[in-house]
Write a structure and sequence with these properties.
By secondary structure, the chain is α+β, with helices and mostly antiparallel strands. It has six helices and eight strands; from the N terminus they run βαββαβαβαββαβα. The strands form two sheets. The protein has a four-stranded antiparallel beta sheet with strand order 2-3-1-4, with helices on both faces. It has a four-stranded antiparallel beta sheet with strand order 6-7-5-8. Strand 6 and strand 7 form a beta hairpin. The longest helix has 16 residues. It is globular and about 45 Å long.
Length: 179
């Protein structure tokens, strides 16, 4: 069995995806070692099914059970380990809420990345490695011009998590693959 991280885009505010019912629904659907982390759309599970099948089943389940019809991003444990290891801003981990990793559904246009990098100020940095964008916003994500323009400026479906969440999901997905 392979363990996966599931990232649900846009959870919070008016869009809720309650963790306990989500865990129960994923377990009932036959997934193993299901865990969730905070009410912002994070889950892990283990399955022997192909990724595309997992994504389709989870999307259908969420639409029916929770009226959740937004993007879901799926990464294997190996991909999550690589995401953590490749962080280009290791010093930023000392203030993990200032570092974010955004998983991308497809490769962004290099010109769009350059345009975003051009608006970076006050120490903000953006680097895209494969299908992960790393944002370092030392003065805070909410105060960053780069962060404010990131989603639309990048032009590809994505969802971001702060480094605290990234590391907690690494722990959970590692545990899910061990069992």
């Amino acid at each position: 069995m392979t363990a996966y991280v599931l990232l649900f885009r846009g959870v919070g505010g008016a869009t809720q995806l309650p963790t306990a019912p989500l865990r129960a629904a994923l377990t009932e659907a036959g997934f193993g070692n299901v865990a969730t982390y905070i009410n912002s759309g994070n889950a892990v599970l283990a399955s022997g099914r192909p990724r595309e099948e997992i994504l389709a089943q989870v999307a259908a389940l969420c639409a029916v059970r929770f009226s959740f019809c937004k993007d879901i991003h799926v990464r294997s444990r190996a991909e999550w380990v690589e995401l953590v290891a490749r962080s280009p801003f290791p010093a930023a981990t000392a203030a993990p809420t200032s570092l974010h990793a955004a998983v991308l559904a497809q490769d962004p246009d290099p010109a769009r990345i350059a345009a975003l990098q051009a608006v970076a100020e006050n120490g903000d940095e953006l680097l895209v490695l494969g299908r992960v964008a790393y944002l370092h916003t030392p003065r805070g994500f909410g105060r960053s011009k780069l962060a404010a323009r990131f989603d639309k400026g990048l032009g590809v479906p994505n969802t971001a998590r702060n480094w605290n969440t990234v590391l907690r999901l690494l722990h959970l997905v590692t545990e899910a693959e061990r069992d």
